[in-house]
Design a protein that fits this description.
Structural class: alpha/beta
Strand content: 15-25%
Largest sheet: 8 strands, mixed
Number of helices: 15
Number of strands: 25
Length: about 550
Amino acid sequence: MPDEVIDPAPLDPGTLRVIPIGGLGEVGRNMTLFEIDGKLLIVDCGVLFPEEHQPGVDLILPDFGFLRDRLDDVVAVVLTHGHEDHIGAVPYLLKLRADIPLVGSQLTLALVEAKLKEHRIQPYSLTVKEGQREKLGPFDLEFIAVNHSIPDALAVAIRTDAGLVLATGDFKMDQLPLDGRLTDLREFARLGEEGVDLFMVDSTNADVPGFTPLERAIGPVLDEVIARSPRRVIVASFSSHVHRVQQVLHAAHQNGRRVALLGRSMVRNMTIAAELGYLDVPPGVLVDYKKAGDIPDDRIVYMSTGSQGEPMAVLSRMANRDHQIEVGEGDTVILASSLIPGNENAVYRVIDGLTKLGANVVHKGNAKVHVSGHAAAGELLYCYNILQPRNVVPIHGEYRHLVANARLAQDTGIPAERTFLGENGTVFDLRDGRVTVAGQLDLGFVYVDGSTVGEITDADLKDRRILSEEGFISVIIVVDANTGKVIVGPEIHARGFAEDDAVFEDVKPKIVAALADAAHHGVRDPRALQQTVRRTLGSWVNRRLRRRPMLVPLVIEA
């Protein structure tokens, strides 16, 4: 939440307004809004996964509040690639207006369309590929191939009367990619010659020196780990990480093993990738999970979700002995993904749980089983030198990543006054090659909790944290409606306390005395009496038990 909200002035004709709605100061919820001459373009619409201090939350969406009255002005949503942090919120946006066109590559749209089918939404979509240009309202879009940890990723160049913007999406510069699809630096150079007025660039690895290692370096490691595993192998990764699954399929095939996919999203995404030709499945390698139990333990690999310690994902359920696959002595578990900031504790709990069950757990801390999908500092320097952009807004990352990216830009000669650090809701205006900060919107978090969207508040989450950390006490009291005298109670019941309810016998006389005093002063309103009970009991519990539980007093008149 911004410290200071500054409403931007009305937008002048011919000026491009750029508003990051999500993805700044966080790893996820990537979404940027572009506006010119009354029309809006959205680039990406992703989700953020909850952290431990957000109990019960399934997903966190960008705040669409700024858009609600302007949905008819949206010409399209451009999706740079198919990861959840870039496409996961699309169903929730299309529930507000179902016919917003979706623009993206073949694999990206296939993944989002499968997701929309579950929400019973039939989208209007436009499939594009690198080198293609499309004119959508006042926006002239050109799509450029970039290399990432999922095939078919695209950067997008946005040309308007106000100037040229290049938004990278997530990318890296793997020079020997598994699919042979390089980040198109020749096109970057051509755009640099044309003149990039604003460069909006992925910051996730900006604080990592050097270059991101090659994806293909993981293959031999996976092959070695699987070869020396005496029993079952379970590999956990993101459900859309096609390149990682490809390497697991190859390593399993090399070692005479078959592979079963676990998790609904994993099965759905890899089926789509295989059907479209993005996943090369060796003949006979894939086996249905239901038949995998008939295969000897030393001849099977399970490919699952849950690499981030998500409570309901396959790997966490295995660690908690809540899955049909009972992990035991001799099994090998490979966590083949990065740690999203905020998920570290959950992941290490899963690692500990699996280790206690006897598994050998292999992760990026003890073996090279993951490389990032994001450009490190050396790659970003190349981009700045090739493009020589007039202005830079680092995006996609926590604040330290944005700062590191801005410093890289300045190291290549981009003036500090043309390098802008923003947060979600910062309003940037571009005109005549100059970027100015025009305001700051008040954007919050939109929580998805089961079927509830946007109704859970920070206050609700605070209540949940109190319940989980401090416990719960209920008090029931019946008072005479005329005199205010206590007739029945107080009956006190606690949950989440080590102490027996008998410990509260000492405070009951204090509650009765406080109510008598309130009645003496003419207080009869049950809500006011409940506040009296809350203050008296809360003060006692804090002093005596050193706790601040949730207190729910109920005063009934009789």
